[in-house]
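Lecture 7 notes: from sequence to structure.
We start with the chain below.
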Amino acid sequence: MQFDVVVIGASTAGLHAAQKLVKAGKKVAIFDRQQKIRPARRTLIVTPELRRTLPEFPEDMILHRTGTMRLSSASVTREVQLNDPDLIVDRAQITQWLLSKACEAGAEVFLGPRFVSFGSNVDRSNGNKSFVPIHFHNRGSCTVFATEAVIGADGINSSVARAAGMVLPSSVPIVQAEVALPLGWDPNVTQVWFDSEETRFFYWLIPESSEKGVAGLVGDDGTQTRELLADFLNRQNLKPNSYQGAKVAMHHPGFQPWGNVENLPLYLVGDAAGHVKITTVGGSVTGFQGANAVVRSILNGNSYKTEFRFTKRELDLHWFIRWMLDRLDNRGYDLLVSAVSSDVKDFLACHNRDSMASVTWRLPFIEPQLIRVALQCLRGIAKSYSYTRSLGRFGTTP
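Predicted structure tokens for the same chain:
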């Protein structure tokens, strides 16, 4: 079998790229090792950029909207009223929808074959075009040929990246519990709690309806993260009905999610590419933007580096902010949250988490106290030395 583009992995970013390429006239195949695409349910909070990145996103797939972001440190709480509310969605529903859209567009989907390796470039057309063999296994060996590009969309432990000798992004665990909202909780409010003594990230409670929501956190160790969540639920008097979990890739400015298989371009997208804002460990919008950059690179003949540059600026900014935040203790977080003045609230109301790179420089001029926060971050360098050292090894080699 021969295809213009072969997508390995039926992730949301891979499915989105496949659909757009087919619509542009490319012959595309999607291969996934699962016999059936049945992703686990995971509640996500995303910015309105999702609708701008995916204009066809159905209204009925938006579970809920929250227009207030409440930020809490040990001693301070501030609320930001968003001009354009955040969207609450289910990752499993998005995956199924994108799979159906890719199939409707004409992409060929093969479920069950497990990617094994790439073969050597061969000439099967009298010198006019080269073909790269891609070997799969599914109750026997099979080989397909890609003529224009390969897209690796097979997650944080990407076999495609390993086969190509590419660096893999590091990852962190996310655990969240489905809970009933506390009595009297405003379902328009999403709240995050900062406690650097327990996690360098934060806890959250995200409503997904007027009655229920998800409470969770990001950690560095899966077992410890689950224990921290249990303690948090107890403190908040929240009873878990079920749990959701995942490992999420971490972006690093030095990570290069593209390469070559023989002379054929190879692109990584989604978690395989580390397309994740590591301030919030959110990668839905940036994953789709990365997929769009891959599509433009293939269709326009431009380099992926060029097409991806604006999204990379966003991801790099979030990496730098995370690097700074990891140096804050609880007193520093008190200082940070107290710096969310009325002017900062107005700024955050207008600029969402996926559109900050071109405007963040304004913040110290809007609220000079943020300069004190930056100095506090730098004074915390000794505390976070081990993490800084690990970031220097931003990924793992195959």
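Points to note: Confidence is low (pLDDT under 50) at residues 393-398. The two ends are 29 Å apart (CA to CA).
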